[in-house]
Specification:
It is built from twelve helices and 18 strands. It is an alpha/beta fold. The strands form four sheets. The protein has a seven-stranded mixed β-sheet.
Length: 380
């Protein structure tokens, strides 16, 4: 008689330590580890994975995680795309979740496919109401927009708020945010809290009401570019030329300009020309959040802070990593929500069983196992 235990094997999720330079975030925080453990999932965390976010290993073990090798787990969750060496550590059939840059990192996606890894890109999650809890672009955009304003305030030679003192009254700074998605709206809200007079601009006219709801003015240039999935479409050459002409005139009246405009998979549009910078008052500041895709300012040097025409131009890369505690907490919830969508009860345990008829999973999966896709009725 067989007396061996019949307890079903638990699904395991691995959390590696991020290896990208300057990346301090971690894909899962202890609170979320506890939540996944309650679902019957085993969590394996690489030693030191949370140190960049000031989370010691002891907090992970207290939450029920095991400190060990995360790369042999059924699913591996990351923040930054894996290196070639890390892809080589993934077993065929492993599920990988993280920011994978599917539109710009073709070599990484190809290597994951060749390795037999089923990869889900957080930036490919459709921006629909049902997927809001998984929208990592939005959660991290909030962090970037907030930090961009603090950076602008630190670099500025002027106060943000109006000050009335015995020595006289100081006028409030004027701040223009170009591109009012999640990061832009957070930048407007933060600048307003600091006391600046705020204005927002976007080629999508439907966001004007959101800008005004934050107490900011709307800069109407008369150019619209409504696209799909919550993004702006790329402007035509004539539209771009007219936009730049009108923006050049407007930008020179602001002390602070923060740019957040990106078109997925393409070079960032140029919004702040060299001529516009030259026309700004000495001591003004431009913070360009699109540096990783080329920058919105013509004089941007990605990853650097430079002074041109007495105007400071800062183009920080990966701002969310500079606030790793809250950025990790938000990202961890996004990852957990996506994982929960894949988990299915299986004979007293839970298994990773993505339903390819689910729009969120189908669109966020950038490499898929052909056999599994056929069984689930999807296209490989």
């Amino acid at each position: 008689m067989n007396t061996e235990s019949t307890v079903p094997r638990r699904t395991t999720v691995g959390v590696p330590r991020e290896s990208a330079a300057g990346e301090r975030r971690v894909a899962l925080v202890p609170k979320v580890v506890e939540k996944l453990r309650s679902r019957g999932v085993e969590i394996v965390v690489e030693a030191g994975a949370g140190l960049g976010a000031l989370i010691p290993d002891e907090l992970y073990t207290a939450a029920g995680a095991t400190i060990g090798d995360p790369w042999s787990a059924d699913a591996v969750v990351k923040v930054a795309p894996p290196t070639a060496e890390e892809v080589g550590r993934l077993r065929p059939g492993t599920t990988l979740i993280g920011f994978l840059a599917p539109l710009t990192a073709a070599e990484t996606i190809a290597s994951l496919k060749a390795a037999g890894v089923q990869a889900f890109a957080m930036e490919a999650i459709p921006r629909i109401s049902r997927a809001q809890s998984m929208d990592a672009l939005s959660s991290q955009g909030n962090v970037a927009g907030y930090k961009a304003v603090l950076l602008a305030a630190e670099k500025s030679t002027r106060f943000f708020p109006m000050l009335t003192t015995a020595a006289g009254t100081v006028k409030p700074a004027t701040a223009l945010v170009l591109g009012v998605g999640v990061a832009g709206l957070q930048a407007l809200a933060t600048a307003k809290r600091l006391g600046a007079r705020t204005t927002g601009y976007d080629v999508r006219p439907e966001v004007a009401d959101q800008v005004r709801s934050l107490g900011a003015q709307w800069l109407d240039l008369g150019i619209e570019a409504v696209g799909e999935g919550g993004y702006a479409r790329e402007l035509t050459e004539d539209e771009r030329a007219e936009q730049q002409k009108r923006l050049e005139e407007a930008i020179t009246g602001f002390d602070i300009v923060i740019t957040t405009a990106n078109v997925p998979g393409r070079k960032a549009p140029t919004l702040v020309t060299a001529t516009a910078v030259q026309g700004m008052r000495p001591g003004s500041v431009v913070v360009d959040l699109a540096g990783e895709s080329g920058g919105n300012c013509e004089l941007t040097e990605p990853g650097e802070t430079v002074v041109k025409h007495d105007v400071t131009i800062a183009s920080p890369l990966n701002l969310p990593a500079t606030m790793p505690e809250h950025a990790s907490e938000l990202y961890s919830r996004n990852v957990s929500a996506l994982l929960e969508l894949m988990l299915k009860d299986d004979d007293g345990a839970v298994a990773l069983a993505p339903d390819w008829k689910d729009e969120v999973l189908a669109k966020s999966c950038v490499t898929r196992d052909v056999a599994d896709a056929t069984v689930n009725g999807g296209d490989a």
